[in-house]
User: Which sequence fits this backbone?
């Protein structure tokens, strides 16, 4: 079953705009990660935020984590057509289990 | 540039046939994962190994699926007999999991695209 649920399922924006994707999860976690998947390709790790962190930046990416609400958001600023992809959140549960559980993903389309 | 290598990239097979997918994890990684991706179910964990030992295969249909790591450079996922509902993309991923660590990034292969007709 899916631990994380992403919202929205699909998002279409214009180049230069910001894109925000949200993820909710159910259990206590060690960390939350965001991955990107281009069409027909494997998933690529973007950023990891630990449970004791609230915000993290990497280039044009900004991730927030609210453990009290069991939610996270990924913000992509100044989007580019090349950002078109599916984005997945993945949680590392605080149970010793070291396998990531992935959400359902957000399909982002950036129009040039 | 280290990467996870999967073969075959694409496979079309008839129902009832055996399918074997192979994965070469990144050298030095101690944990290997098999995930399956479908439109309906998304990404599902099938099985994973730590230092070649199976840790969790609860996501895998035991009657027809089997996963092994004959050595540190090879992981296999076998389906016998295959069924149309097995059609999916099968991803292998590897990572270095440190005991007591609080985070682990995993690296995915490009996937094996399986169609069972």
Assistant:
């Amino acid at each position: 079953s899916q631990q994380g649920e992403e919202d929205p399922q699909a998002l279409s924006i214009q180049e230069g705009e910001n894109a925000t994707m949200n993820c909710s999860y159910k259990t206590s976690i060690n960390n939350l990660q965001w991955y990107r998947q281009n069409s027909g390709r494997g998933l690529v790790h973007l950023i990891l935020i630990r449970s004791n962190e609230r915000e993290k930046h990497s280039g044009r990416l900004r991730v927030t984590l609210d453990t009290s609400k069991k939610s996270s958001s990924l913000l992509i600023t100044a989007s580019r057509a090349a950002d078109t992809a599916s984005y997945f959140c993945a949680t590392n549960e605080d149970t010793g289990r070291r396998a990531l559980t992935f959400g359902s993903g957000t399909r982002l389309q950036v129009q040039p | 540039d280290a990467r996870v290598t999967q073969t075959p990239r694409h496979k079309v097979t008839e129902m009832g046939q055996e399918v074997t997918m192979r994965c070469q994890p990144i050298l030095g990684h101690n944990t290997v994962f098999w995930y399956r991706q479908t439109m309906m179910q998304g990404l599902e964990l099938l099985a994973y190994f730590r230092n070649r030992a199976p840790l969790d295969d609860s996501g895998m249909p035991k009657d027809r699926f089997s996963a092994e790591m004959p050595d540190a450079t090879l992981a296999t996922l076998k389906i016998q007999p295959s069924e149309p509902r097995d059609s999916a993309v099968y991803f292998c991923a590897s990572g270095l999991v440190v005991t007591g660590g609080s985070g682990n990034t995993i690296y995915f292969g490009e996937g094996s695209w399986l169609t069972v007709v």
User: Anything to note?
Assistant: Chain A has a mean pLDDT of 92. The two ends of chain A are 36 Å apart (CA to CA).
